[in-house]
Amino acid sequence: MTKRELVIAAFEAMRDDYPALTTTLGTVEKTLEVLCGVAAAELLGGGEVPLPGIGKLKAKKAAARKGRNPQTGEAMDIPAGKKVQFVPGKELKNALKR
Length: 98
What we know:
Helix 1 crosses helix 2. The chain is built from three helices and five strands; from the N terminus they run ααβββββα. The two termini are 22 Å apart. The chain is elongated, with a radius of gyration of 19 Å. The protein has a three-stranded antiparallel beta sheet. A two-stranded antiparallel ribbon has the order 3-4. Helices cover 44% and strands 29% of the residues. By secondary structure, it is α+β, with helices and mostly antiparallel strands. The longest helix has 20 residues.
């Protein structure tokens, strides 16, 4: 799914579920951008971002490790840093098992 497809799907769902709302594609797109910015800031600060009904995103420390350059095969040191981890919620886990 592309960003545009996500915006259109959210717009159509909002239009169908909340017909009294005067929502435009532009409003939905801006809302998505703002939510992503807030989520990124929270993750950069080391926090968690809940995704209701889906799970959550967590910032996790990654230890330094050895790796290989995939093009040359040369060994290299990968420094410690942060990575984002997705933790699926109970509802999503159960739905995927079916």
